[in-house]
Amino acid sequence: MKINYVKLHNFRNHKDTLVEFDDGINTLTGQNGQGKTNVVEALVVASTTKSPRTSKEHDLINAFETSCFVEIEVQRNFGKVKIEYFIDKEQGKIFKINGNEIKKMSEVFGNLITVYFSPDELKIVSESPNERREFMDTDISQLSGSYYNLITRYNKVLFQRNKLLKTERNREMLMAQISVWNEQLAALAAPIIRTRKGFIEKLTGPAKQALKDLSKQTEELEIDYVGAKGTTVEELKKEILSALEYNLERDIELGYTSIGPHRDDIKFSLNGMDARNFASQGQQRSIVLALKIAEAEIFSAELGENPVLVLDDVFSELDTRRQKKLFEVVSSYQTIVTGTAFKFPKEQAYTNFRVASGIVKKMKK
Predict the structure, then answer these.
(1) Where are the alpha helices (DSSP H) in the chain?
(2) Residue 328 predicted with pLDDT over 90
(3) Is the CATH number of domain 122-305 1.20.1050.90?
């Protein structure tokens, strides 16, 4: 898989930009604030439907405009795919695939698969469980639009259960209705958790090996899903339903649902210790890099073709050993990487684009 080109119109500080990428490594260089990250952000939105930098879609529109437009052509094993999206301050966001407007956001997933890495990705290890759930759900959704639909349906049912818990003051009325929402929530939660557990199982092996390579065999990584016990969907549904009933009084008092996949977590252990609390920033960076290497391997195996690596200002944060390992990984993929400057090995081939004030210029080799 490779991106042939991206066109940006009124996207962030890009008035009218066309970037035609080559195979292998493509670097976007320039001073900070010139628009390098905006280019890769546009690619990630096309891949995952959302920005890794903001939850406000209007932020993607040039400050002096009312709408923006992005077009990307992706070369797949089976042929070319054109992804377009429009963001309008009045109409919101609209996606088109090969000229056809999509009706469900799940239809966007699977057309462009990216592995995104930036210094902010340290939050996967260091910050709240929400960051780790987002990590899982985004990755799985890229491989399965049906999983995205499942999450969407779960969140709608969760909203209704929470609304009932928060607003229904007649206990008899609440008890008469809550069992229906419990049943629906458990039926949706069980396949979500089973899918997440399967993803973690696939991720653990390559991530463990990648971290060993980065640390010269001195650091051992373990990854565990923290949530309902059970292996099959049936076992998980029974476990969740029981937990919803057991925690009902607490949920009524809190006014929201306190258990389920929306509260689950991933535990990263480094040499037997909780990485969130005991790993140094350098060790956390190594864990995230190992996760990204593992992501790339999983996507390649599942897709039968390589994803595109999108690396935003990463190399400056890595020491020599981590840089060398990352070079080994990117050599097999189309990679789009930003930075103020690069010190690649002399034998490393790459295409450089210079970015200044939202204008991108391909440099001569």
Answers:
(1) 36-48, 123-126, 129-143, 145-167, 171-214, 233-246, 248-254, 275-278, 281-303, 320-330
(2) no
(3) yes
